[in-house]
């Protein structure tokens, strides 16, 4: 068996310290890690970390949607994501963003982000530009970086293996050591955001002995070794979406199915028997009914869904 790298050893130490602190909280119970979960087809400025904020907060919401079939589809994916973010507005009111793709034919992603509430950011004009049959969105409550437009998510990065977009809910317990590791490899960081750090870490060359190719599940597993806690992620390539939950299940993430409107909201068929117009993944299921989606299940701790 390969020996763990110094970076992985350090990550384990920092996670251990974090879990020791979490164990004193009545609200958080670490869960057993599993990295081979079930496969489920999913075709004003405020200081950041270190500043204690009063009141109950939820620290960001993430949302992803993909329609069945090729672009153009019957499902207005941008509208679905926007309504999903409205339902998640309680999780963050500082900024929001949506990124969409037209699938395999896409040359670039369509991006719109801004500061403030959802209804002020996404106008009729901006929504028309968000074409695509898949996309991800984010509503932000800042934890690790200041409330500024440069920190709006999702983050989009062009890599040697294609463009990716990442939306993140959570806060890395070992962000300092991971930041040093990323910088030591010659990768520049333009913000202090954990989310940009995660995005760039996904693009790092893999460990020795592994192919440096477009195997994104392998890259995600490598990220989970470097940073085990805490996050839920939605990661978009031009033709697919990955949902990722950290091995301790410290942040929520669930899957829903968009069903045809002709089925109606109150029919009681088992969800797995219903036809699918598309799939959604979200921090919470509270917005599923308003977009014609049915709750399927939560993403398991340590699981990667595609």
Automatic annotation (TrEMBL):
Keywords in alphabetical order:
Glutamine amidotransferase, Glycosyltransferase, Transferase
Q: Cite the Glutamine amidotransferase type-2 domain residue spans from the record.
A: 60-306
TM segment ranges: none
What is any Pfam family matched here?
GATase_6
Q: Name one GO molecular function term.
A: glycosyltransferase activity
Please give the InterPro entries that the UniProt record associates with this protein: GATase_2_dom (IPR017932), Ntn_hydrolases_N (IPR029055), PurF_N (IPR035584)
Q: What is this protein called?
A: Amidophosphoribosyltransferase
- Native organism: Culex pipiens (House mosquito)
């Amino acid at each position: 068996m390969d020996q763990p790298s110094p970076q992985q050893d350090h990550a384990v130490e920092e996670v251990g310290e974090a879990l020791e602190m979490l164990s004193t909280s009545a609200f958080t119970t670490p869960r057993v890690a599993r990295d081979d979960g079930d496969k489920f087809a999913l075709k004003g400025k405020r200081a950041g970390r270190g500043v204690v904020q009063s009141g109950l907060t939820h620290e960001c919401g993430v949302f992803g949607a993909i329609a069945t079939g090729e672009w153009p589809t019957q499902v207005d994916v941008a509208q679905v994501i926007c309504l999903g973010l409205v339902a998640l507005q309680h999780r963050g009111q500082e900024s929001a963003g949506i990124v969409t793709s037209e699938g395999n034919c896409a040359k670039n992603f369509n991006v719109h982000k801004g500061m403030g509430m959802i209804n002020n950011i996404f106008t009729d004009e901006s929504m028309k530009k968000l074409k695509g049959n898949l996309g991800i969105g984010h509503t932000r409550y800042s934890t690790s970086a200041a409330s500024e437009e440069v920190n709006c998510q999702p983050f989009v990065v062009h890599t040697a293996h294609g463009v990716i977009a990442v939306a993140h809910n959570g806060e890395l317990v070992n962000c300092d050591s991971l930041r040093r590791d990323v910088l030591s490899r010659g990768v520049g960081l333009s913000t202090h955001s954990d989310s940009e750090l995660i995005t760039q870490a996904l693009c790092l060359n893999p460990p020795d002995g592994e192919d440096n190719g477009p195997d994104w599940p392998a890259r995600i597993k490598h990220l989970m070794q470097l940073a085990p806690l805490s996050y839920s992620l939605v990661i978009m390539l031009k033709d697919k979406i990955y949902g990722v939950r950290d091995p301790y299940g410290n942040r929520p993430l669930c899957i829903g199915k968009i069903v045809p409107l002709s089925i109606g909201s109150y029919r009681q068929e088992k969800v797995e028997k219903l036809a699918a117009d598309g799939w959604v993944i979200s921090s919470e299921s509270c917005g599923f009914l308003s977009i014609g989606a049915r709750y399927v299940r939560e993403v398991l701790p340590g699981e990667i869904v595609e």
